[in-house]
Amino acid sequence: MDTTADITAMRRAIALAARGLGATSPNPVVGCVVLDAAGQSAGEGFHRRAGGPHAEIHALREAGERARGGTAYVTLEPCNHTGRTGPCAQALLDAGIRRVVYAVGDPNPQATGGADTLRAEGVQVEQGLLADEAEAGNTAWLTSVRLGRPYVLWKYAATLDGRAAAADATSRWITSAESRADVHRLRAEADAVVVGSGTARADDPQLGVRGIDGAVQPLRVVVDTGATAVKPGARVLDGSAPTLVAVAEDADAAHLPKDAVLRLPRAADGPGLDVPALLAALHARGVRSVLLEGGPVLAGSFVAAGTVDTVVGYLAPVLLGAGPAALADAGITTLSQALRLAVTETVRIGPDLRVTAVPVPARKGN
Questions:
Q1: What SUPFAM superfamilies does this protein map onto (predicted)?
Q2: What's the pLDDT at 366?
Q3: Region 348-361: what's the mean pLDDT?
Q4: How far apart are CA 27 and CA 235, in angstroms?
Q5: Which of 175, 236, 248, 338 could form a disulfide with 179 if both were Cys (CB 3.0 to 4.6 A apart)?
Q6: Who contacts 213 (Cβ-Cβ below 8 Å, separation ≥6)?
Q7: In what order do the strands lie in the sheet with 41-46?
Q8: Is the pLDDT of residue 185 over 50?
Q9: Looking at residues 107-136, what average pLDDT do you find?
């Protein structure tokens, strides 16, 4: 039976793991807490960046000799392979850890097996403590491993009647300064930020993270099928962060930097590029999480492709009555085809409401 001390230590490990969001890709975020043989806190750590020591190593270094005979609490099954760092399962054995409690099994076939290695050496191993909480904190990486494509979070801002802009196309600013600051937190947690040609033309966005100390700038991606929206001198080409402009295979992109051009096939149905091909290309570049910032047409193509994993809507207490909707054509023609969502969180952000929701599987007969 899990004790209060077990739960407290694992919850602390989950909080530590969150500190690595946006900095560890293509690796997961992981936290670790080590208690000594007397049950007292001896060391803790989290995975800070790809290529650097894993969470267990940081915690064991802090614990030193106090780790011997102690317990390690880890949010993800200790790895069992040698990559840019050595296997954490072996490090736990070398440190003399006698009990390991981990929340979520590692779905990566290259790294799994750490639990079996530990058990074979007589270590008491337990799985599943606060698994739902740990999985939620690592959902982007877990999704990318399980589906073989980046996790996609679609963020949008809209009025209470669902308008993303007014009838004259003005959209600055529908939501508050507080909501816009919160979006920079989402950017800081993502590997890539993706917008479409409409947003590039209307806003000339820079797409970087501002106001968050130590943030790793995400890859900036503009889906510009005809290579007509991103012009020389565009803010997204300012060199402050890596940039890709995704264009059709037959588009004339001579005016763009060669290393910024990503050529992709056009969508088989409808305008734009093939969304799965875009995500596959990003995944091949180590992108494990995507923040889709719009606009409505691009969001519609992602929804139609079934590649939106989470929706975050910032709703402002504003009414317009006309203007483009937050979501354009998503291939849904009747109510029975609607993408049903489960709301997981509602939070007040300044005067606005932030709603987070995830798709739910369609019920049979719908």
A1: Cytidine deaminase-like, Dihydrofolate reductase-like
A2: 46
A3: 95
A4: 29
A5: 175
A6: none
A7: 41-46, 31-35, 71-76, 99-104, 124-127
A8: yes
A9: 90
**Confidence band of 169 (pLDDT split at 50, 70, 90):** confident
Active site residues: 56
Q: Measure the CA–CA gap between 282 and 268, rounded to whole angstroms.
A: 20
Whether 31 and 10 have beta carbons less than 8 Å apart is answered as no
Q: What is the pTM of this model?
A: 0.90
User: Pairing relation of β-strands 261-264 and 243-248?
Assistant: parallel
Which amino acid, residue 49? Answer: R
What whole-number distance in Å separates Cα of residue 280 and Cα of residue 288?
10
Contact 319, 325 (CB under 8 A): no
Cα–Cα distances in angstroms (integers) from residue 356 to residues 292, 302, 348, in the given order: 14, 17, 12
| Residue in the block written with tokens 């007509």 | 228
Return the amino acid letter for 337.
Q
Instruction: Tell me how far CA of residue 217 lies from CA of 96, 154, 235, 326, in angstroms.
Output: 39, 18, 14, 26
CA nearest neighbour of 347 among 315, 310, 305, 307: 315
**Average pLDDT value for the chain:** 93
What's the CA gap between 65 and 54, in Å, rounded?
19
Q: What is the pLDDT of residue 362?
A: 60
Element (H, E) at 179: helix 177-189
Confidence of residue 1 (pLDDT cuts 50, 70, 90): low
